Automatic annotation (TrEMBL), chains A, B:
The record marks 182-183 as: Cleavage. One of its GO terms (cellular component) is cytoplasm. It is an enzyme of class 2 (transferase). This is Arginine biosynthesis bifunctional protein ArgJ. Substrate binds at residues 149, 172, 183, 263, 385, 390. Heterotetramer of two alpha and two beta chains. It comes from Bifidobacterium callitrichos. Keywords: Acyltransferase, Amino-acid biosynthesis, Arginine biosynthesis, Autocatalytic cleavage, Cytoplasm, Multifunctional enzyme, Transferase. The active site is at residue 183. The gene is argJ.
Length: 390, 390
């Protein structure tokens, strides 16, 4: 289903010979058939942002995008003027095919940093993808496969509102995942009748509460892109609150799927910090715990090591998150193994067999809370990232 | 040699039955026989600091320490009032043995967080250690062995000044190593005639440029302690600059040895950032690169992955480190594989066989520089930390 679940969108995913994996689908095309072409976008804050990010950020700024072309097999990052020319040439090709201006075409790339793309393959692939465009579930699924890199499965979302308008979406991302954003490309489509301004506001909030609160490995990518496109094909103007809620729900679902497919992960770890003096304080504590390699290793060994949780909490400066270390409690999978900053119930009581691990930290300092997600750190993560060609 | 290299110090290292490893030396005692008992200390900034840190920080504050007792096999961290009482009881025992006040005894512990120590074993071990005290190289070596946990080798330093006064030292630390400080216990001794104030100033600068610039795994400990003790036994008042320089050199040597023994590490990575607008800017960039799990995995796979270097650099906010991403160069082991923010010479030219890997980053934005050290991230690191009992 993916991006074609919303009316007014066609998609394709084809093998264009960009990826080093023979025959892998590596080029996706998503076309907004209207009547609207409203768009919003959120991009990486990495200062070495890739050529396609530079291109797309500029084109999305006016709130109009007619088509998005995405490739795996190469990030086109740190490629200078030549890389930017490749993104532009790709947009020009798609524009000619679908009958629009290059300025209404967004470009997304993911893969190795520092190398130019095989442009001939990209341009020929764009033609193949254009011919394969369809509004079918299969075409949406093909697109979601074509953007995968170290992902082991496609990640999609489909939501239907109370009065018939829809949201569809796809994301790729598995490693180099950290706030802000992640090594991820995400396209969300809707057939609601909405303005670009309304979409940008909804997307900013949704991203802040989803993609910006997951952390696989603390590494921020050069290529992160989240696009939201509206066709208006349902003819329905959504209730504003419901629109915001469903965009947020779509992002949350896709972000959760990224954690579920984190490189080499054997546990998905949900860290909820309550009792904080502010949401920022709760978030800072959650992120500090999520970033602990020692804790992530312990979880991969099925050890609910609360010492590694509190020692990470202890690195957050008091001015960022005021709390009294002797009042902190930590529950892992519902067992309070740390009470008043010291040992609580025996950690042997904790059942670590489920894939999902819940760490609930109560700072007992206020009423604010926040949740972040991370993965455990496994032999397989090291294997993937020691042996993945740069 | 270790701490007994300086005149006026005796030491011992004994097996006291604290460690879960049968027969392992796990208790060290260092006694300052004077005539001076001047002392300085630097401690973890972790808010969950351990009971021995709370005790020792208070006792060192007046600039006098007569003896230090250190144990491996248990951190006595997150152990509340009962843990603090253990540190106090340990200090009282040592004070009675060596004939001083408990307030002149520092206590250091390392090992598992969240459990009380077997106090009877600690107190009996203190007696054994007291009887074994000697000013010999062997006694110093025993002490340096007794503080080891996941360390694979003892780490010591011996320096002699131009006019005969000496510095000796020992450190333990292998994992949970990150600025500020590391999971490390360090005792440095000198027979120079110096004041506590002079020592504190020298130690603060030396720590900032050594232990605070190494990062094995981004995890800050609850127990980090660096102590500097002066006996004055040489009778020599050192040149102030030489004293500062040798303290700094001792800390640098011990910090470098920690990196050389980082948990599971197969490469020691030196990251030098030059051309920064300030030392703080250079340091922020160096630390961002040192913290990248993706880069550390790549290095363990002998891949000089400059994309992962610049994408880490790109996460440092412009207000912290102003630079133009298109002017950045990166050399790995002397080969400029990134030029003007893009691909430079082919990475196949880089010889990755040496254990020591040099990453030289030129921001081309100013004249300041800084160096940080880290280790690569290996299967063995995950193994150690997934299977090490909490």
């Amino acid at each position: 289903m993916s991006v074609t679940f919303a009316q007014g969108f066609s998609a394709a995913g084809v093998a264009a010979g960009i990826s080093s994996v023979e025959g892998k689908k590596d080029l996706a095309l998503v076309v907004n058939n209207g009547p609207l072409d409203a768009a919003a976008g959120v991009f990486t804050s990495n200062r070495f942002c890739a050529a396609p990010v530079q291109w797309s950020r500029k084109q999305v700024a006016d709130g109009h995008v007619k088509a998005v072309i995405l490739n795996s097999g190469g990030a086109n990052a740190c490629t200078g003027v030549a890389g930017y020319a490749q993104s532009r040439a790709t947009a020009e090709k798609v524009a000619a095919l679908v009958g629009t201006e290059p300025e209404d075409v967004a470009v997304c790339s993911t893969g190795l940093i520092g190398e130019l793309l095989p442009l001939d393959n990209v341009l020929a692939g764009a033609e193949t993808a254009y011919r394969a465009l369809a509004a079918t579930p299969e075409a949406g699924a093909d697109a979601s496969h074509a953007i995968m890199t170290t992902d082991t499965k496609p990640k999609t979302v489909e939501l239907e509102s109370s009065n018939g308008w829809r949201i569809g979406g796809m994301v790729k991302g598995s490693g180099m995942i950290a706030p802000q954003l992640a090594t991820m490309l995400c396209v969300i489509t809707t057939d609601a009748v909405v303005t670009a301004g309304q979409m940008q506001a909804a997307l900013a909030v949704a991203t802040e509460h989803s993609f910006n609160r997951i952390d696989v490995d603390g590494c921020m990518s050069t290529n992160d892109t989240v696009l939201l496109l509206a066709s208006g094909a349902s003819g329905v103007e959504p209730d504003k609150d419901e629109f915001n809620r469903l965009v947020r729900q779509a992002c949350a679902s896709l972000a959760r799927q990224i954690i579920g497919d984190g490189e080499g992960a054997s546990h998905d770890i949900r860290i909820t910090v309550t009792g904080a003096t502010s949401e920022d304080a709760a978030l800072a504590c959650g992120r500090a715990v999520a970033a602990s390699n020692l804790l992530k290793c312990a979880i991969s060994g099925n050890d609910p090591n609360w010492g590694r949780i509190v020692s990470s909490l202890g690195t957050v400066p008091p001015e960022v998150a005021p709390y009294d270390s002797e009042k902190v409690t930590v529950d892992v999978n519902g067992v309070r193994i740390c009470e008043n900053g010291g040992a609580g119930r025996d950690r042997s009581e904790v059942d670590m067999t489920p894939r999902e691990v819940h760490i609930d930290i109560d700072l007992n300092a206020g009423d604010a809370e926040a949740t972040v997600w991370t993965d455990d750190l496994t032999h397989e993560y090291v294997h993937i990232n020691a042996d993945y060609e740069s």
